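Recap from last week: sequence in, structure out.
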Amino acid sequence: MPPIDLDVIRDAAARIAPHAHVTPVLGSASLDRIAGATLFFKAEHLQRVGAFKFRGACNAVFSLDDASAARGVVTQSSGNHGAAIALACRLRGIPATVVVPRHAPQVKLAAIADFGARIVPCEVSQHDRDRVSAQVLAETGGEMIHPFDDPRVIAGQGTAAFELLHQAPALDAIIAPVSGGGLLSGTLIAAKSLNPAIDVFGAEPEGASDAWQSLRQQRRVTDMTPNTICDGLRAHLSERTFGILSRHCDGILLANDDEVRAAMRLIFERMKQVVEPSGAMALAAVLRHRERFAGRRVGIMLSGGNLDLSPLFS
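Predicted structure tokens:
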């Protein structure tokens, strides 16, 4: 596969255009006052399947040649990527199998099933996810589309920042949540290509700070057991995404789960938008590090909105 650059991201944007939403950029005067900055919220929770993940999944699925597509797609996911692959495969008319860790949020499992994918359960550890995925690949002969360690996926995720910087071209900084690093890698490549002077930061929970530790130690940290309410931010960087972050990222900003809850509440109350904990991570990091962004124009990725609302109605 060719290296990921702005041309590859432009191609991805054209490929997914018939299928993906161009999500709006939202603002809030009250949140601007609280942050001491002008905030531009890229509303990826309003993307199809309720998360930015559809961009990368759609680009990868529609990049397949017909022979590969006919064998179907296999992936591993705690939820949003699995639903995105399931929808993209349904749109293309090909089978999808998703290896899902036990205890994944029910709302995300339901979405994967609703879009027609076969669900294969596994244990939570990355080792077991990889083991079960390998078994499914051997059984089906399908095409593996990894949630973040795939150039096609990274290029697709980069289309969110590509759009954002055309909608709000004079940004000083962009903040994106980081888990396996697919969204942040795509954001870095798109943003730094369009504006080399822009600052791009990752946002990560304190209880799953492997990316923060990896950049500090200049090596991939993969032995951390995540402990966070941000169920979408529990993966480790791959060699590919670690390399991209090491070259381009201006830093990883941490926030704890209480700060994530507070950011979620602000988004609910001030913007009337429903986001999941991972989706509020970037705002939580900006509010914790206000001094870094004071007086600046800051893009914030609201990465997903698949919150389990059943406790409110039980």
